Structures are given as C-alpha cells and as structure tokens.
User: What shape does this take?
Amino acid sequence: MAGTDYHCPHCGAELRGGVRGGSRPGGTPGCPYDGLAYAALRAGHDAIYFGPWRRIDAPPTEIRRGYNRIGRHLDAIGGELAGHDLPAAVRDLDAALAALRAADPREEFRDTLRFMDNALSYAHRAIDDLLHEKGLPPHQPMDFSEWYDVVEVPFRDEW
Amino acid sequence: MIDLDRYPREITLRNGASLVFRPMVRDDVDRLWVFFQQIPPQDKMFFRQDVSRREVVQHWADTLDYGLVLPILALEGGRVVGDATLHRQRTGWKQRVGVVRVQIAPHCRHIGLGTAMVRELRHLGEKSALHYLMAEVIEEQSAAVRAFEKMGFVRAATYRNFVNDPRGGLHNLIVLLYRMSSPDDLDV
Assistant: This one.
C-alpha cells in the first residue's frame, strides 16, 4: 500500500500509506492524532510536512502532489477558520495562500520548494492560532515523527 | 476598545503546565513585584523603569488604564510567571502603532510561554484597530527575537550600539514590526 493515500476514518486526516503505525483503512487503533483538537488539520499538516516532496531527490510528480495537498490543506484550514473570529489566523492563511500562488510546480522554478515550505509554515501558524484559542500548546510535528519516515530532526528552540 | 471577556484564559504549555492569562488588576502589585525580583539583572537593566522598587509597580497599579497599557499576566497558581503588555496611544501620529513588551520568569523560559504571550498580544492587537505592533529587543535576547519572528514580526531596523547598560556597555537594538490585517491594508 506504500504510496497510497487514504483517510483516517476516525479523525478524517488524509494520511499516506506505508507509514509506521499510523491509522489504517477501516481501523481506528493506532491513529496518533486520536482525541486531539483539530486532529484532521494537524494530521493533514504532518502528512505534508513529512511528505516525500521535501526529500532532496523528490521527483517532479511528488512536488506537484505536495503542492496540491497544500492547497487542499489550506482549504481545510479556511473552512475551520470560517467559524471563528481570529483575524491573526486569517492573516496567516492569506499569507499561506499567497505563498502557494507564488509557487508553480509545473515549471523548473528554483523557488517553488521555498514558497511551498513558506505556505506550509504559515498554515502551521494558523493551526497554532486555533489551538491557542482553546488554551492548548502549539502543534509540534516532531511529536508525531515516529509515524513517518523522518530522516531529519529540525532544530527547535522555544522562548 | 478591546473585548476582555476572553479572560481569564487557561493556557496549557508544552510541558503540561497549566497557566492562567488575565489582565493585571490593582491587587496584583505584590505578586508582580515578586515576579520582577526573579528577573535576572542582565534582563532588568533594559527596563525603562526600576521595577525592583515596589512603588514603581504600585504606581502602575494605581494608574491602570487598559486603553493605554494593557498588561496581561501569566499566573501559575498565585504566582506571576509572565508579563506581556500592549502599549497604545489614544491620539497623535502613533495611535495606530501598538508597542508590545514581554517578560518571562527564568524558570518558565524555553517551554513556549513567551511564544504564547506574543501570540496573545498579536490577537489583542488585531482586535484593537491597530496597524502595526512594534517590539524593541536587545540583540542578545535571541530567543525573544525568534519568538517574535515566529509570530510574524519582521526586523524593521537594527540600531547599532544604540542602547547602553548600567555599566556603559553599548548594545544593538532590534526593532521588529508586525503589520496588522485591517481593511485599510487594501488602500496602502
């Protein structure tokens, strides 16, 4: 099933097949986002964040796939924000959309990956804004890294 | 007018600690003074007033005006562990610029409290019809700079050897700006 997309039936997250221990089609046990606030958005973010498009040797098809997934992810965040009065989060989402528009995965454009990364980063901040309104700590993708094929651990230093 | 109905707010940090955010009230003088006593001298030397003196904090409490200065405290039990302030002007050329300041107790650093307080100030700023939030940070306070940048503040200027500490040493001052979302943005 490696390389196949499916949705966790419990949290609704779009997850990529082949992950270690993540939710499986038709089964809820093992979903690492089970019971978390905004589980679908968090899982959706991480599936992209740890996705193959970020690998140094990612083929163009994976980059286009990542681009489209970011677009769907931003749509999902927009849908959630529609029910809240969070102008700062809306601003982040707008910035994410602008970054995604600046990327064009169909072209040999060296800044495409950077713009996609920026879009995902703004999306992350919007999710954190939602979590903050619930009094919850920010989402930390690395907390879920064991469910993905992670080869790098980004530097983290919080104030 | 900022809607303060959202307070008190319970905030959970990454380490599981549960804090309460709420505006400072007059009765907070002693707990805020105790908080400032925990701040290391190297951080306190950049304060605009001598917060080691109780009467300074008492004066703040006696002259509380949320329309001018809105201090949000982070409380762990009954103790203040963080202080974030939004400074505004009602008139004049900077009435659309809010100045933010954040101070975190040493034992609560590096667990996301500073970031949470900056996020809270950003929310308040967005609700205040401001156009910009501005933060001034000494360059050595790199964690604070990162926290502001993480929340969308951008470095607008660095003033080299601009401020001095009590011993006369000079330090670079970084000015960070966060541009607010406002309908006026469309016209700028």
